[in-house]
Fold this sequence. Notes:
Layout: E1 3-8, E2 14-20, E3 28-33, H1 41-52, E4 55-60, H2 77-86, H3 89-102, E5 109-114, H4 116-127, E6 132-136, E7 153-158, H5 166-175, E8 180-184, H6 201-219
Parallel strand pairs: 3-4, 3-5, 5-6, 6-7, 7-8
Antiparallel strand pairs: 1-2, 2-4
Amino acid sequence: MTASISLTAEDGFEFTGQLAEPEGKPVAGLVVLQEIFGVTGHIQQVTERFAEAGYLAVAPSLFDRAQPGIVLDYADVTKGRDIMMSLDIEQCVLDMGAAADAVRTAGKVGVIGYCWGGAMADLAAGRVEIDAAVSYYGGRIASWLDIKPQCPVMYHFGETDPLIPADVVEQIRGGRPDGELFVYPEAGHGFNCDERPDFHPTSAALALRRTKEFFAQHLHG
């Protein structure tokens, strides 16, 4: 189970996060970044599963600066996008930094994110002190390809994703030549989320296996 904690960004802003602790000594710290729907039950479950794998994991509520505690239905895409667009990216960087600091006692720190959070995971790799990042279907990465990652990053995209066409994926691939980028032929947008119609279990399982191997390589020890 996750537990609510208080986080404080460098500018003094206080916001919440969901923390999941592993049994025994953590292998590393991990920040789990939300989709545009807030820290949903699914994001909390993802955080718990990584804790079960040994990580001290936290999911920060990155929408708290706009609407504290808000969690949206998956049908509320427009509202989620509006909140996301209202956020100050520099403040988001501060909030991700606070979340990373909250789990740094575990050792090295990784970041993983989904959809908007997937793009923010890439941004964190360039702007936050972390050791590795994994991005799931983060199309907005194309907006800041000039901000180069300072740590290893892995990228997952769905080939049938209508929100991130192939030319955008290739643009990201070209702008992130050092990254490990995978495209899943039968997967659409949100293919990792088992609460969404686009859930594709085969692709999700393969992406998770690759992600765990990647984090084991860069975060453990």
